[in-house]
Amino acid sequence: xxxxxxxxxxxxxxxxxxxxxxxxxxxxxxxxxxxxxxxxxxxxxxxxxxxxxxxxxxxxxxxxxxxxxxxxxxxxxxxxxxxxxxxxxxxxxxxxxxxxxxxxxxxxxxxxxxxxxxxxxxxxxxxxxxxxxxxxxxxxxxxxxxxxxxxxxxxxxxxxxxxxxxxxxxxxxxxxxxxxxxxxxxxxxxxxxxxxxxxxxxxxxxxxxxxxxxxxxxxxxxxxxxxxxxxxxxxxxxxxxxxxxxxxx
Length: 249
Fold this sequence. Notes:
Layout: H1 10-27, H2 37-49, H3 51-65, H4 74-93, H5 98-132, H6 143-164, H7 166-173, H8 178-204, H9 219-232, H10 236-246
Family: Belongs to the unc-50 family.
Subcellular location: Membrane
Keywords: Membrane, Transmembrane, Transmembrane helix
């Protein structure tokens, strides 16, 4: 028997398949004519009003292309565009200079979004495959899928906190009034709930995972923290705005 006739181990075939998928994904990053921006925009809209429909498409992709993770970078490109647009709004609200704006934009893209996303995706990938996967299940959670789930869950908070909230900041939220911290802290509460809920949907839709309800188990603690912040006079938005400004000034 020749070497070529010996079948490769399953893990090696999977690694080569994953590497091939990553290569094809990255190769399409600059080929805008091959991206389906209309469908990516549809996904962004439905992440607000019916996120279950977004994950239904992930299952269709698994059936047709043997992967849950996106193979079209259009969503990531639009996501990056929204980051740039909302960063301009932050620069105006915080009265940042041009270089400070560039510094803020780089922080937002490479630290707040990509950096945190890589960490969160890796943690979920490891923990879910190690402790949440059914022991007799052959399938595992793709790392690319965990990063997609993070982007899905991060998008509504991005629009709420980095876009809509800015219209109320200077005129209302930035003050020390109770209504100021009520509005600002409520924005953050809704954003965190959105992130947790969409993350939960992403992993609960994988039938080979168990006990995914634990992902939303911290919800009571978050609500309690929200109430304590209102009573104690802690304005979350003000504190975060000061943090954003000081790290680029």
